Inverse folding.
């Protein structure tokens, strides 16, 4: 597991700042992970308040490349840029729980699915970041929530952004510090990360533990995509 895994968080400035503060607070309180977390948040998350995905273009490519060069101590031209997973409950494909987590993910905020269904999916599919050396693709992906086998939790459940951030951090840490030599062990990495982050959400929002996806009745009944206002 490379040490350059990171989340790219885009959205309204005030919302991004609030999320950043919550993630920092969570990392400080995660006593069970203190020995494993030997990195600072700024090395693993790119917070981009007030930015839109369409406006990032080559800057995002350069940012990721520079971080990979720094972490891998290799020449820029020898770095192969990975595809980026745009986390969206509307995506047609999911990130298999049996795999190691993607090195880079984009977490978008406050996408109103009632007004514009599939907005995040469409944005991810339509954007290519053109690099002088290669093209880095952005692929819409769901998180494999069905791996938890929870009847009320659908695969397309829209999650609060702080829940997504905690889930990804835990998943990355599990993949880096725990034995992932078999598919079953890697699935446990994701299930542990997902269960713990959803527990945090239930503790913070006991009256709204599930937002409700579209899998059961085929209708859009949710208010947000990967995040919601607090």
């Amino acid at each position: 597991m490379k040490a350059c895994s990171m989340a790219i968080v885009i959205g309204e400035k005030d919302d991004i700042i609030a999320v950043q503060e919550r993630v920092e607070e969570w990392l400080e309180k995660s006593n069970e992970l203190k020995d494993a977390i030997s990195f600072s948040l700024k090395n693993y998350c790119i917070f981009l308040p007030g930015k839109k995905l369409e406006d990032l273009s080559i800057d995002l490519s350069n940012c990721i490349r520079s971080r990979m060069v720094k972490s891998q101590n290799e020449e820029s031209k020898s770095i192969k840029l990975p595809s980026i997973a745009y986390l969206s409950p509307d995506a047609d494909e999911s990130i298999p729980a049996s795999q190691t987590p993607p090195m880079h993910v984009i977490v978008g905020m406050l996408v109103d699915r009632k007004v514009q269904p599939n907005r995040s999916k469409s944005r991810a599919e339509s954007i290519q970041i053109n690099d002088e050396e290669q093209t880095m693709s952005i692929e819409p992906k769901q998180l494999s929530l069905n791996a938890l086998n929870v009847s009320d939790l659908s695969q397309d459940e829209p999650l609060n952004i702080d829940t997504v951030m905690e889930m990804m951090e835990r998943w990355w840490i599990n993949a880096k510090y725990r034995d992932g030599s078999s598919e079953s062990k890697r699935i446990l990495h994701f299930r542990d990360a997902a269960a713990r982050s959803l527990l945090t959400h239930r503790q913070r929002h006991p009256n709204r533990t599930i937002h409700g996806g579209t899998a059961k009745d085929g209708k859009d009944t949710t208010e947000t995509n990967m995040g919601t206002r607090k």
